[in-house]
Amino acid sequence: MKVSSEILNLKAYKPGMTTEEAQRKYGRTDFIKLASNESPFSLPDSVKKLVSEELSKTQIYPDPTCFELKKVWAQRFGCEETQLVFGNGSNELIDLLIRAFCEPGDQVLTGSGAFMAYKICAQAARVKTIESPMTSDGRLNLQDFSKQLESSWQCPKLVFIPNPNNPTGTYVPGTELFEFLDKWGGRDDFLIVLDEAYNEFVTAPDFPKVDFKNYKNVCRLRTLSKVYGLAGLRLGGLEAPEFVIEVLDKIRNPFNVNHLAQVAAGAVLQDKAYLEKVKTHICSERTRVESILTEKEVSYLPSQANFVLIDLKKEYTEVHEALLKSGIIMRPVANYGYAQHLRMTIGTKNQNTEALNSLLNILGHTKEESQGVSQ
Ligand SMILES: *Cc1c(COP(=O)(O)O)cnc(C)c1O
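Above: the input record for the complex with pyridoxal-5'-phosphate. Below: its predicted structure, written as tokens.
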């Protein structure tokens, strides 16, 4: 059978190495996985209890409309229930947006160092990705996005703006984003997708709070995979103008969001104390990790997310392998154009300390020096 060249040439998304995989490969059982921007916290006990009670209903199909979750979400994030669609992770929603709004040969626009899922989903749908170059400090360059929109012979159908971005941890500040949205937010020939997977971790005062309802063509993607600790159950949401929701509702699989994910999401979204606990922990550990890196003169991109992109100043392979041998899983991001970097997820305090100690040792700091990293 003939397979199209786009599919044959597709480089599948390479997720972070799982702990099990590392165990099989390196024969140790005490791995610290800081490779996939997961939360170091499991769900609150009350949510776990609820989910385990619902386990007795798995012979029944889930609610295809996510009725209860929509109510909770709309209230929590301030949008209408008619402006919502959920997916099996936000990754599915990215896929659906491209399938719904692009035809083979169309284009989407994002940054060269932006989250990889946009490009992969596009290619799978025979859609090209215009990659706007990042700024020298690793940020999306919306002025260049504008240039691309003005100059491309064929207008992109979707513009993906991950804010903060993965894997850089950088963000587009309010002035730049609002200037962009004022210019392009009234168009009806393309959609602007703000992907805010990490927005709960932002502390920068100039981070933009966008109300998508002020624009004709702006959508917001959220995920419960990061701060809310639901990566394993899969739940993402798209807040968008009704016409977008209607189209995605037509093409999505009717049972794309499983029952346990719906129940867990509805419950965890109402637990403000849990959100505060996770946020506070991640933000204070991020500050601690960054200040240790600064003190030890290891370069990194200042992050507004739950990970830090560390600049090794040399090709990543050896350091990555040495880290694995010492029981630490970090994430190579060479496929994003960062071949001298590793991305470290912020974990528990002990995990971060161990990871940094191993990294500093590998990078040639002596034991004495790295004793500066204390518990
Ligand atoms: C992790 C991540 C997502 C979320 O993916 P899910 O499919 O919801 O787990 C979306 N966008 C970005 C930029 C991410 O880093």
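Notes for the reader.
The pocket of pyridoxal-5'-phosphate is lined by residues 37, 89-91, 115, 162, 166, 195, 197, 223, 225, 231, 236 (CB under 6 Å).
DSSP finds 14 helices and 13 strands in the chain.
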